Fold:
Amino acid sequence: MPLTFNGTTVTAVTFNGTALTALVCNGTTVWSASASPVVGAPYGGGICAYLLVSGDPGYSSSTLHGLIIAAVDQDPVAYWSNVINAAVTGTSTSFGTGAANTTKIIAQAGHTASAAKNCRDYTGGGFSDWYLPSSGEFYKLYANRIAIGVLDLLENYWTSTESNASNALLFSDSEGMDFPDMKNSDYPAVRAVRSF
Structure:
């Protein structure tokens, strides 16, 4: 969670006239003056969860880009979508497609509620560009699960990737893989991400 004071994000901290570079609490960095994001550190309204590498969509050798994960699940627990027997055309498993998948889910005829909408409605850190990650994005989150430390390793999370008209992909943090489940299952957790 970003360090704030009276609702304002702290960008500098001094102690006895000396500018600090970081605040550490019980061995965890809770604030960093570094302009560069660090996986596992608070950043951009959540926790920096993944930094793009060469070959990732959107990678730049001159500017860091990546994923930020919300520090908490987006409640309430939700169906993948209230539209349960109609296909969403064109969702993808690929890394970098979660935002587009989220938009497609919400745009369905008859849509009123979904895991995707829970993420889109989330405003953590004052940001409004959160989305439900694709299964490919969840694989990147899983790879950094220990460093980011906010995923429940015994939980199954909805992804924004549809499997077929009646099923969507869940990501199991205990098994490190995705699998299909019925869109109207209400036990999976929902965790938003945003890109930077």
Summary: The chain has a mean pLDDT of 89. The first strand starts at residue 4 and ends at 5. Helices lie at 98-106, 115-121, 135-143, 145-148. The radius of gyration is 17 Å.
